[in-house]
């Protein structure tokens, strides 16, 4: 069987054995092994991705793919949240405030319009922006925790809060009498 056929069937051990046999056959025939391209033509991006992407562990995709997935989900959710707020929520809120403040009837002066309609709208928009930023930061931190848990699962390590458990309380300084 060829290496390509084995890769299609999905047997990893057979593929590895075939690669080893192909490598030993090439060296036994006296031909030099092909060297990887290490010149100005090699891609820096490919090298960076190769360093970031660990090999496939016990079944699953590399950490980089999961990281890209989680970050993409967060960025798409952030985009949808911001665009829906900007195109739907804020205009509807502005129209509601315009009607409720009395500015729609034309009875208010310019100062009254600013005080009764523009200032409350600006305040609510700033509150919405702060809430959205907090939600976006929370989602970004969530994705960071997910990526870290995948990375830890790959390496087989678990993060601990401290290396040694604390059983005693830290000692306090004794109160000393001060001379006046």
Overview of the structural elements:
The protein is mainly alpha-helical and 180 residues long. Helices cover 66% and strands 0% of the residues. Helix 1 packs antiparallel against helix 2 and helix 4 packs antiparallel against helix 5. The longest helix has 46 residues. It starts with a helix and ends in a 25-residue tail after the last helix.
Which descriptors would you attach to this protein?
mainly alpha; 180 residues; 0% strand
**Low-pLDDT windows of residues:** 26-35
Instruction: Describe the main β-sheet briefly.
Output: none
Helix content: 55-70%
General form: flat
Strand content: under 5%
Average pLDDT taken over every residue:
73
What is the count of DSSP helices, taking H or I runs of 4+ residues?
Answer: 5
Q: Structural class of the secondary elements?
A: mainly alpha
Give me a quick take on this structure.
This protein has 180 residues and is an all-alpha fold. The protein has five helices and no strands.
Strand and helix layout:
Blueprint: H1 3-9, H2 12-28, H3 44-52, H4 63-101, H5 110-155
């Amino acid at each position: 069987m060829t290496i390509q056929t084995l890769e299609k069937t999905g047997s990893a051990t057979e593929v590895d054995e075939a690669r080893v046999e192909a490598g030993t056959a090439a060296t036994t025939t006296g031909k030099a092994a092909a060297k990887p391209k290490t010149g100005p033509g090699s891609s820096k991006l490919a090298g960076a991705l190769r360093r970031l992407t660990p090999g496939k562990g016990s079944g699953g995709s590399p950490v980089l793919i999961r990281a890209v997935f989680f970050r993409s989900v967060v960025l798409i959710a952030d985009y949808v949240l911001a665009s829906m707020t900007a195109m739907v929520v804020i205009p509807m809120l502005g129209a509601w405030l315009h009607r409720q403040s009395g500015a729609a009837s034309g009875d208010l002066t310019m100062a009254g319009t600013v005080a009764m309609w523009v200032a409350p709208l600006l305040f609510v928009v700033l509150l919405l922006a702060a809430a959205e930023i907090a939600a976006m930061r929370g989602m970004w931190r969530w994705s960071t925790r997910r990526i870290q848990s995948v990375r830890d699962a790959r390496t087989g390590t678990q993060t601990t809060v401290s290396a040694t458990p604390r059983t005693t309380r830290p000692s306090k300084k004794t109160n000393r009498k001060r001379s006046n």
